[in-house]
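README: folding subset

This subset contains proteins for which both the sequence and a predicted structure token string are available. Records are stored as plain text. Below is the entry for Nucleotidase (195 residues), shown exactly as it appears on disk.
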Amino acid sequence: MKQKRFGIDIDGTVTCPTSLIPFINKDFSLNITLDDIKKYDLSEALDIPAERCQDWFNEREPDIYWSSPLAEGAKDVLLKWKEQFQLFFISARRSHLLDLTQKWFETKDILYDRIELIGSHDKIKAAKQHKVDIFFEDKHDNAVSIHEELRIPVLLFNTPYNQDPVPSGVIRVDNWAQAEQWVKAWIDSESFIQQ
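--- output ---
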């Protein structure tokens, strides 16, 4: 059986989805938690003008990414998966942040086959190019479009900002332990079918 290729988003998936919160609270004099962010678009979620929000994010982006903690359980699962699968981290981060991103992965001891920063939320082309068999995402419309275009399962990490309905090929998980369980069952069923 060929080695499966996993497409994995970074922010809000490998990193804890709360990574932005301390920066938002400090820089905008707010006192919010992740539960207060009901939309993926921060300007909409926080009622801050889009241009101001984008300028803030452009300035703070390197600091936010560098200080982002790993999502709970991500490291253990990813280290196990690296032994048996190919891991392609495909992110909307912009390409000038590649060096910082690779260094962050090194400091966290996360191994990978490739990190691709595409500078856009449209990950379909990169997922196709790398022939990924499954994708891991936190952005609702990305998860849906990747599944619908590529006909692959997409595991959507549950957050307050991605609660719109999903088709059956997008599977909600609350954490990396659930993702690992789902993948094990999926791999087992694929192996059974091929026998």
